[in-house]
Amino acid sequence: MKKSKNLLSKLFVFSLIFTSFSPAVFAEEKSLNPTIEESPAVSTEPIVESSLQPEPTITTTSPETEPSQPQLQTQSIKEITPKVKTTIPLQLLGINDFHGALSTTGTAYIEGTPYRGAGRAALLASYLNLAETNFKALKPTGTTLRVQAGDMVGASPANSGLLQDEPTIRALNRMNFTIGTLGNHEFDEGLAEYNRILTGTAPKPGEFNTITENYIREASKTEIVIANMTDKNTGTIPFGWKPYTVKSIEANGESVKVGFIGIVTTEIPNLVLKKHYENYNFLNEAETIARYSKELRDQGVNAIVVLAHVPAVSSNQVVSGEAADIINQVNAMDPENSVDAFFAGHNHQYTNGVTGQTRIVQSTSQGKAYIDLTGELDPETQDFVAIPEAEVLPVMPNPALTEDTGIQSIISEADALVAMVTTEKIGTAVDAQNISREPNAFKESAVGNLVTDGQRFIANQLGYQVDFAMTNNGGIRADLLVEPDNAITWGAAQNVQPFGNILQVVEMSGEQIERVLNEQYDEGGKYFLQVSGLSYVYTDNDDAEQPAKVHQIRKEDGTRLDPNATYRVVINDFLFGGGDGFKTFTEAKLVGAVDPDTETFINYIKAQEAAGQVIDAKVTGRKTYLSATDIQAAETAAVQAIKDATKIHTLTEGDSALTGTTLPNAMISVQLKESLARSSLTTTATENGEFSLDITNLALTKDQIVAITITDTDGNQAQFEQTVLEKAQITETEKPNPNKPDNIGSSIDQPKGSSTSKDPTKLPATGEVTTFLPIAGVLMIGAAGIYVMKKRKCTA
């Protein structure tokens, strides 16, 4: 709807006022011509809003001979019959993110309400037909168009995916979808392959499996519009697609032109293999819409619909997300724009609301719901009369509604063709429960653990000696369905990993691994990883752009990840190209390649079956959250445990070994305090916690301070200090036995001979300190007293 319509309404009101104050002579002159029944102001009125409708006593069309004769004015009103405005009803039925879901059912969340068991293409077709029938019953002169907002194919179940999604093209034809745009999944195998199935062209011999080569295909009836993508070499939109299309909607001998602009998300480089997008430019969505909206208006097309594969969400008719942001930007760039409706997609969320003067809608995904948008078109303004109305409705089983037999025939044929592959049993689950891809609060899922465990297993079978595996959660497309007899089929496994992305073995440092894990926790948090071979704790972060951060990473054996060490990781080629925004993966060094993820997952389950192992996947705590308070408490307790367990023997000048006991397998590091910049001497305690460190190179002398750091296996540290004593101050019989700890130790900054610990809030206290100095002092004082007494006797 053009944003300038208010101006026309204001001009109409002004004309009412002007004519009501015209001179009487002018009124008499008009009254001499009884054939004039309505003024130009009435005949050109584009929209009569309720707030602007004239009161019955106000007239601009009746002649007024004398202002003092109300009877004549009333008679004039009765004689004039304003022209009845005729409009053309339009219904747009829409879907998005179908993903070849010919037989898929699931839960559709509509305004927070779950509709379970929704979906199936044959049922969707019947609902669309019913919606059109009901619309035509109310609006006999109305027109219905069916539109889609991208991702019709790709990430598809086996009965579509194994046949290159050509059954889906046939099903969409049967449902009469005539206008659509691209989503990111249309790029999955490259736009050339997508264009092949659109045009109904046969593949090259040997390019795909036999069932695909022999499949009865047909060209798509959907006209693809895509405005914000161009070929880098030619500067034009590829494959002859257009930025928009215009449809003439006709009724009662009148017509209104409606424009449809196509938009794809500019996140494509984060979502698609590099080789499938590197030849294209992706243009700003808002700028593109503003440009082509103006171009359409210049052609007299004021009713404009955008089909955009960009995310949106709404609550109580309030829309948020990129779709709303884009419309707000368009309104700022071009306040006179005439975008009336915006069909969104990509994030699979229910959306229905208004931003500015634009209705924004999205129908969840996989045919579990559909959009029914209606509006009235004005032949005079060539625009919608008002903001279109819309409903998003679930596709639920209904005994009164018969599934479309034509669609079901397409599905049955596809099922039969792929059955020899999909029904093969490849594994056995521990029970008949499906293995869920639903992530827990920490974004770990049971099937995600199974997928990444399988990738690591197969890579190691091939001799790559892999430490970890990681995959993007978006690549896991379904629960792993288990048959009643606990069987896992080929088709069920393929549904989980349908993309066929090549798995890469790469080398990464521990520091790079920590960075890539942190890339999950940006402000959106919508892209995350499933992992195998490691676990980690994350906590809150003060940075608004990264509200959480990784705190601690452990390998499978429980030891800490070394930031300086090099590890081998299995990832798919999508992630290796920086997909889903994981840019650090692009820094990894490629070592080798494994089979595609689909085959790898299937082969892993087959290998477990061959080994007599059942599949028992669970959430195991590979991702855990701790608050900063919890972390501090744990670290404090760990430091105290080191202090309590550590006993260090006294050091005297010339000693060649530092001995004592501490926590098992703890690391002991020693330096002279005055030379902390030098490298330290280190050793590791035994399983019993005993240690002996050669310190000959320190060449200890009296009063030197030795700094000792004890690090437990979790990386917690406690620090100690020992002051070197004079060797003459201790006798051979008093010197501790290095092989028998005697609870001797000293804390940081303790004065010699003192057993008082420092403030524990500053530096950790240590074990007891026991020396011979107090005894020696008493003996010396006693000897001095005897000497004085003898002296006095001698002088007496």
Describe this structure in words.
By secondary structure, the chain is of the alpha+beta class. It has four domains: 5-79, no CATH class; 88-409, Purple Acid Phosphatase, chain A, domain 2 (4-Layer Sandwich); 425-626, 5'-nucleotidase,  domain 2 (Alpha-Beta Complex), CATH 3.90.780.10; 640-777, Immunoglobulin-like. The chain is built from 21 helices and 36 strands. Strands 1, 4, 5, 6, 17, 18 and 19 form a seven-stranded mixed β-sheet that branches. A six-stranded mixed β-sheet has the order 8-9-11-14-16-15, with helices on one face. The protein has a five-stranded mixed β-sheet with strand order 24-21-27-23-28. Strand 2 (105-110) and strand 3 (113-119) form a beta hairpin. Helix 7 runs antiparallel to helix 14 (405-422) and helix 12 packs across helix 13. The radius of gyration is 39 Å and the shape is elongated. Residues 5-78, 732-744 and 746-796 have low confidence and may be disordered.
Concise structural overview:
This protein has 21 helices and 36 strands. By secondary structure, it is an alpha+beta fold.
List the helices and strands and how they pair.
Blueprint: H1 5-20, H2 24-31, H3 40-43, H4 70-79, E1 88-95, E2 105-110, E3 113-119, H5 121-138, E4 143-148, H6 158-161, H7 166-174, E5 179-180, H8 191-199, H9 210-213, E6 223-224, E7 229-231, E8 244-251, E9 254-264, H10 268-271, H11 274-277, E10 280-282, H12 285-298, E11 303-309, E12 313-315, E13 318-320, H13 322-333, E14 339-343, E15 350-355, E16 358-363, E17 369-378, E18 383-384, E19 389-394, H14 405-422, E20 425-428, H15 446-461, E21 468-472, E22 487-489, H16 490-496, E23 502-509, H17 510-518, E24 529-532, E25 534-540, E26 548-555, E27 566-572, H18 573-576, E28 589-596, H19 597-610, E29 623-625, H20 628-645, E30 647-648, E31 657-661, E32 667-672, E33 681-684, E34 690-694, E35 705-711, E36 717-723, H21 773-795
Parallel strand pairs: 1-4, 4-5, 5-6, 9-11, 11-14, 14-16, 21-27, 25-29
Antiparallel strand pairs: 1-17, 2-3, 7-10, 8-9, 12-13, 15-16, 17-18, 17-19, 20-22, 21-24, 23-27, 23-28, 25-26, 30-31, 31-34, 32-33, 32-35, 35-36
Helix pairs in contact: 7-14, 12-13, 15-19, 16-19
